[in-house]
Amino acid sequence: MPIRIPGDLPALDVLNSENIFVMNEQRAVSQDIRPLEVGILNLMPNKIETEVQLLRLLSNTPLQINIDLIRIDNTSHKNTPQEHMEAFYHLFDDVESKKYDGLIVTGAPLAKLQYEDVKYWEKICVVMDWARTHVQSTLFLCWAAHAAIYHFFGINRKLNEDKLFGVYAHQVNHANDELVRGFDSSICAPHSRYGEIPVDDYLSIDGLRVMAESPETGAYLVASEDRRMVFITGHPEYDADTLDLEYKRDINAGIDIDVPNNYYENNDPSLPPIVNWRAHGTLLFTNWLNYYVYQQTPYDLSKLNGGVNS
After folding, report:
1. Which end of the chain has less neighbouring CB within 10 Å, N or C?
2. Pairing, β 22-23 against β 3-4
3. What is the CA radius of gyration of the chain?
């Protein structure tokens, strides 16, 4: 089944060219089923690129999904046209009264900033608290994952001098949990971050389980036992060339950065990347939508209440 997005969203052409089933609003209203309501709070600077990456992953399910693209405020974005923001994004204040089956909060290129120094930190905290009572299951990506752990549980990340940068293998735990159903015992995922929270810190929090981890990256996938929150410290949504573009951008800017680990053939940036994370990335989002969202959410969203630690 398709995802439902506005008919003139630029991502539509890309997804159609990849033979991904998307549905415009006119066709969707003729179907007599309740679609899932999923919000994407997009904190990335190149919002169009991130939209395509996430919509691609959300499309591979037998569910119809209504997507709301959400932004914190009216701030202009140099990497995304203002007309795109005005045409396709809702201000959080305008959807605050709505309830959602699922919410995705993306990462953000905030590098080594302390949380309280982030200009929209207070608003992010408002959104995270709001999600506890207005969203069935929230998926936090990369920076947002660490931010949510800090906000909800008071555990701060350690900021390393060197960036964790590359593609890493992770051991899968709790193989019987539906979130990792169908996973191999070892899965790969890209990472690009300075922050780190030790696995033992996650395990010290009642109700959290580390679903995938590695010695190099620490915890990659963490979920609450009640399925209301999922924390992903890497980037399963990344395209084949995302790390390549980031590496070359930093090199051109004169930043001293190592070649992404386990990414290029023979670790040679002149050779093509090795793409070995897409299958599990797609399966992760499919499992989240099916088992943590669709199987748990009430048919009548007005009956959704409560949340983690509520």
Report:
1. C
2. parallel
3. 19
Q: How far is CA 10 from the centre of its chain?
A: 20
Of residues 191, 235, 246, 280, which has the active-site annotation?
A: 235
| 235 is an active site residue | yes
Q: Are 190 and 230 in contact (CB under 8 A)?
A: no
Task: State the catalytic residue, choosing from 49, 51, 237, 246.
Answer: 237
Q: Tell me the one-letter amino acid at 10.
A: P
Mean pLDDT of 233-257: 94
CATH fit for domain 3-158+196-238+279-303, picks 1.20.120.450, 3.30.70.20, 2.40.50.140, 3.40.50.880 = 3.40.50.880
CB-count exposure of residue 2 (10 Å: 0-12, 13-18, 19+):
buried
Helix (H, G, I), strand (E, B) or coil at 244: helix
Provide the residue ranges of all domains of the chain, joining segments of one domain with +. Answer: 3-158+196-238+279-303
- pLDDT tens column, 85-136: 999 999 999 999 999 999 999 999 887 899 999 999 999 999 999 999 999 9
- The answer to whether residue 125 is catalytic is no
CA angle 135, 140, 187 (to 5 degrees): 125
Does the active-site annotation cover 237? yes
Is the CB of residue 173 less than 8 Å from the CB of residue 212? yes
Catalytically annotated residue among 142, 188, 191, 213:
142
Nearest-CA neighbor of 228 among 176, 290, 297?
A: 297
Nearest Cα neighbor of 234 from 214, 250, 255, 257 is 214
